């Protein structure tokens, strides 16, 4: 087939990457297992990527070590706590302060920033209990117990339009806090794309250049979705704040202020179960998502995760940055790139080549009618 490179054997037996089936199978197994409170936290590795962030100070040996650590995390369950990322603490602090002020504002004020649908994704404010991950996956269970406020890039890039953000006019200095943090996420995203590419090249024994994944995702940009989980002092065992899912992009960079995130991982006996993700001050939790798992021919794991009720008298803020979730508004179908599974020599691709746009569109079409209202 013309879109396939010599990295794949192209026998035509590949399947469509089916997120719903994968997630619901894992959840069915984990939900009958022991509660996460009776298990130790998940073994999420701490990885210092400073040698990629500040390459002038690094040796080849340092870089090799990071590639091996990231590869091990990706092939285990796809989560890592990343430090040495170079995002200045005042930018993180400024973001959290701005978001906190926004979410604590009266609802009539927040309503002025309501979401408007924009090209495969939503920006702006969404009320508490409006979205429903459980409904997306055809499961019973509550709507999402969070409010959210989403942002994309502040500016056009290379003259292309990506839509516009809404910023509240009732909070002074809000916009610079958001835009500065978003710019840092785009910088970190590039660094991680390089590390993931090198890890993938090593695992598949394919000669991918360091810019390989960056080229595949062009010209798409990231979606930053700030979530606000109100304080909840009496959690219920069966409800979760955010239902089990995997993320759609190649990967996600998460900033969070408190525990609650749980991953569905295999125990030593091979049984899926829920485990909490430790919160490391100053670190970002980075996880592999569906597209990277598919492109890696399932070598990398897009781990199912959820947000559990944790008793607390404080609200929880979490800000995922979903790589590659906003497409340019002038995107034309003919420019759609299909990304092939990267296979080791002699290995067969499991999935059909996947385009970023195609995957997002298919998921939205499958889920949207049930998810929103
Ligand atoms: O709030 C969190 O910690 C995670 C949120 C999440 O998984 C998501 O929005 O996809
Ligand atoms: Fe997620």
Automatic annotation (TrEMBL):
InterPro entries attached to this UniProt entry: DIOX_N, IPNS-like_FE2OG_OXY, IPNS-like_sf, Iron_ascorbate_oxido_reductase, Oxoglu/Fe-dep_dioxygenase_dom
Single GO term (MF): metal ion binding
Keywords: Iron, Metal-binding, Oxidoreductase
Pfam families on file: 2OG-FeII_Oxy, DIOX_N
Keyword Transport in record: no
Keyword Oxidoreductase set for record: yes
Domain of life according to the entry: Eukaryota
Domain Fe2OG dioxygenase: 218-325
Membership in a protein family: Belongs to the iron/ascorbate-dependent oxidoreductase family.
Name under which the protein is recorded: Fe2OG dioxygenase domain-containing protein
Protein species of origin: Polarella glacialis (Dinoflagellate)
């Amino acid at each position: 087939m013309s879109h396939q490179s010599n990295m794949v054997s192209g026998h035509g037996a590949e399947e469509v990457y089916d997120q719903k089936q994968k997630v619901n199978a894992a959840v069915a197994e984990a939900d009958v297992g022991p509660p996460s409170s009776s298990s130790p936290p998940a073994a999420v590795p701490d990885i210092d990527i400073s040698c990629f962030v500040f390459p002038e100070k690094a040796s080849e040996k340092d870089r090799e070590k990071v590639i091996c650590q990231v590869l091990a995390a990706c092939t285990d369950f796809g989560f890592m706590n990343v430090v040495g990322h170079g995002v200045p603490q005042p930018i993180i602090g400024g973001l959290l302060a701005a978001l906190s002020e926004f979410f604590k504002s009266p609802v009539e004020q927040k309503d002025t920033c309501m979401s408007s649908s924009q090209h495969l994704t939503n920006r702006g404010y969404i009320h508490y209990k409006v979205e429903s991950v459980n409904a997306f996956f055809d499961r019973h269970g509550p709507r999402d117990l969070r409010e959210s406020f989403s942002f994309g890039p502040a500016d056009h890039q290379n003259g292309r339009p990506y839509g516009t953000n809404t910023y509240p006019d009732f909070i002074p200095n809000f916009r610079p806090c958001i835009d500065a943090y978003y710019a840092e996420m785009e910088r970190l995203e590039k660094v991680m794309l390089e590390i993931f590419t090198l890890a993938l090249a090593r695992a598949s024994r394919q000669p991918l250049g360091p810019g390989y994944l960056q080229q595949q995702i062009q010209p798409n940009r990231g979606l930053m979705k700030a979530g606000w989980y109100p304080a909840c002092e009496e959690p219920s065992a069966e409800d979760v704040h955010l239902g089990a899912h995997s993320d759609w992009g190649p990967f996600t960079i998460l900033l969070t202020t408190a525990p609650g995130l749980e991953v569905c991982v295999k125990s030593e006996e091979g049984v899926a179960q829920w485990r909490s993700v430790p919160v490391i001050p100053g670190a970002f939790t980075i996880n592999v998502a569906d597209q990277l798992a598919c492109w890696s021919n399932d070598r990398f794991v897009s781990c199912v995760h959820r947000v559990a009720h944790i008793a607390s008298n404080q609200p929880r803020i979490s800000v995922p940055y979903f790589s590659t979730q906003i497409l340019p508004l002038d995107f034309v179908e003919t420019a759609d790139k299909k990304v092939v599974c990267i296979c080791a020599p002699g290995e067969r691709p499991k999935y059909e080549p996947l385009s970023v746009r195609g995957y997002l569109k298919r998921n939205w079409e499958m889920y949207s009618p049930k998810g929103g209202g």
